[in-house]
Specification:
The protein is an alpha/beta fold. It contains 22 helices and 21 strands.
Length: 589
């Protein structure tokens, strides 16, 4: 049962209370107005989407009623913007799409949001049910709700205008409660256009109360977890993006510092504690994963990003504490000795309240070993970062970006690509939580411009999007959207002329380029100039630093075409092992 605050026609002033032209006739409303009223009642102030049949009037009405509408060039990018807005605010981001193909475009973003645990709702117009069910060939006919079900946390269809309020309430609650995720809400065209009495419409609206209730951990689970960590000689904490989403920043930091446990942040958890924090083990990642005897997972899952917790990267004798809101996440790859089922904020509060002074004390030898490996690896990286090859490579270009961002912790960093992502994660330091936004759990490309727009719209702060040239191509047309809304987004494109690298060849000897080759001479900076933004073409770190400084200071849209060595980069970045070995060109065995 949904906990709600009752509404009535006398309680709120609704946009759907249309004036009657005849005093003897009751005022009327329709589905379009009820959707807008329901969203406003629940604090939704922004919609991301692409207008078209049958939702154009819904977008216009929402804008007229004070909801900001950000119109995109492709539904996938609109969905990505809504998803990252949900991650940053803990409120469901709203993506509005047209039917059938537009719905399917947006569904990619909803599926990605569900996988990552980002709360968002895709609202789509659809064909009339009786035509769809009989497969009579309606315009953009598709059974959208059932198509969405396998890829979303929940999917709903509204069949009567008086159920719009309940439908939106259920979508909101599903998106943000428990493990957040993507939700689909289907609104047939006939429901949007249907009329009903205005008072009946207002009374049908639902204000959702406590949509994401706290899940308090069992005290015995907290005690068991603390006892296990206290027994460790070589403990480690792994922070995932779930920890960042929780916004329990102060308690997480306090627990880490009070216990003295080394920690390893996953990429979107960077900044929960500053990357230069003395307890960070990021520069000794391989060592701590292989040698820790007890690992505490906070908002992190033992998925492919952590090699499923399996040998040879992990010790087979490691024991685990896992803090997660979903009981079914436990034991997914390794046995979890101390499961803590709770929202992270409640769990960390409980850990701090039950932690005894001096209860957890990592061995001095463990801390020393990590410090020595960190120093060794930092020195090795410094050699690579301080080199100045011509043309630039990933390291020298990212060094310039890192140095520019070092004293600007308020800037959001969006990062995607193969090598661009992998090198960027290691080189760009973060000082504040939720300021690094990247490809996440699926590792997908194409999130860049949507995430950048969502972050800029949500925060009003500058965004620097660090993009591989291939990754940029998935959503690059959204630079027109960035210019249209005058958003403070600077997009830096690492242009090595290819997917992974730009020096591959056609193994048949034919004239066509290799499957991984892009246009080396591409001038991405010229694209944004066509829309009134500023373009920069740079070939060395000094030029990159100057371009970034000018572009960010302007507060206006810009693209930096950063030309790097076409031979820089490796196949699939750090994921070579996931790419099946090919014998093309060298004979098959």
């Amino acid at each position: 049962m949904i906990a709600t605050e009752p509404t009535s026609s006398s309680e709120i002033k609704s946009s759907s209370e249309m004036e009657s032209s005849n005093g003897n006739k009751p005022a009327a409303t329709d589905g379009f107005h009820l959707v807008v009223d329901a969203l406003k009642l629940n604090g939704i102030d922004t919609i991301y989407g692409v207008a078209g049949i049958p939702i154009t009037d819904l977008a216009r009405l929402a804008q007229a009623e004070g909801i900001r509408f950000i119109g995109f060039r492709h539904e996938q990018s609109a969905g990505n913007a809504a998803a990252i807005a949900g991650y940053l605010t803990q409120k469901p981001g709203i993506c509005l799409t047209v039917s059938a193909p537009g719905f399917l475009n947006g569904l990619v973003a909803v599926a990605n949001a569900t996988t990552n645990g980002f709360p968002m709702i895709q609202i789509s117009g659809s064909s009339d049910r009786e035509i769809v069910d009989l497969q009579q060939g309606d315009y953009e006919e598709l059974d959208q709700m059932n198509a969405a079900k396998p890829y979303t946390k929940a999917a709903f269809r509204v069949n009567k205008p008086e159920d719009i309020g309940v439908g939106i309430a259920r979508a909101i609650r599903a998106a943000v409660s428990g493990r957040p995720g993507g939700v689909y809400l289907d609104l047939p065209a006939e429901v949007l256009g249907a009329a009903l009495d205005a008072n009946v419409g207002v009374d049908s609206l639902v204000r959702v109360v406590d949509p994401a209730p706290r899940q308090i951990p069992a005290p015995e689970s907290i005690e068991r977890a603390l006892d296990l960590v206290a027994s460790a000689e070589r403990p480690l904490i792994i922070l995932g993006k779930g920890a960042a989403y929780s916004q329990a920043d102060s308690d997480i930091r306090s627990f880490i510092e009070k216990t003295g446990i080394p920690y390893l942040p996953m990429s979107m958890a960077k900044g929960l504690l500053p990357d230069n924090h003395p307890q960070s083990a990021a520069a000794a990642r391989s060592l701590v994963l292989a040698e820790a005897d007890v690992i505490m997972l906070i908002g992190a899952r033992l998925n492919w990003l952590l090699a499923h917790g399996k040998a040879p990267r992990w010790s087979p004798t490691t024991r685990f504490v896992q803090v997660d809101i979903s009981p079914t996440e436990m034991d997914s790859n390794r046995p979890i000795a101390a499961p803590v089922i709770a929202d992270i904020g409640s769990a960390m509060s409980a850990f701090l309240s039950m932690l005894k002074p001096g209860q957890i004390q990592p061995q001095t030898a463990w801390i020393k070993t990590i410090a020595e490996r960190k120093q060794h690896n930092i020195e090795r990286m410094a050699v690579r970062l301080n080199a100045n090859p011509s043309p630039m490579n990933f390291s020298s270009a990212l060094r310039a970006v890192r140095d520019f961002l070092a004293d600007k912790p308020d800037i959001y960093v969006v990062n995607e690509g193969a090598n661009t992502l992998d090198f960027g994660r290691d080189i760009i330091d973060m000082q504040q939580p939720r300021k690094r936004l990247d490809s996440g759990t699926w590792g997908v490309m194409g999130i860049g411009m949507g995430y950048a727009i969502g972050a800029a719209v949500t925060s009003g702060k500058p965004v620097v999007a660090i993009e591989g040239d291939s990754a940029f191509g998935f959503s690059g047309m959204e630079i027109e959207t960035i210019c249209r809304y005058s958003l403070p987004i600077v997009t830096v494109i690492f242009n090595n002329g290819g997917i992974y690298r730009g020096d591959d060849v056609n193994r048949s000897g034919g004239a066509d380029p290799s499957p991984t080759i892009l246009m080396r001479s591409a001038r991405y900076d010229k694209l944004i100039e066509a829309f009134g933004g500023t373009g920069y073409h740079v070939t060395d770190p000094q030029g990159l630093t100057k371009a970034l400084a000018e572009a960010v200071a302007s507060g206006k849209p810009a693209v930096v075409n950063c030309v790097i060595d076409p031979t820089a980069g490796t196949e699939s970045g750090h994921l070579q092992t996931l790419n099946p070995t090919s014998q093309i060109g060298s004979g098959r065995k």
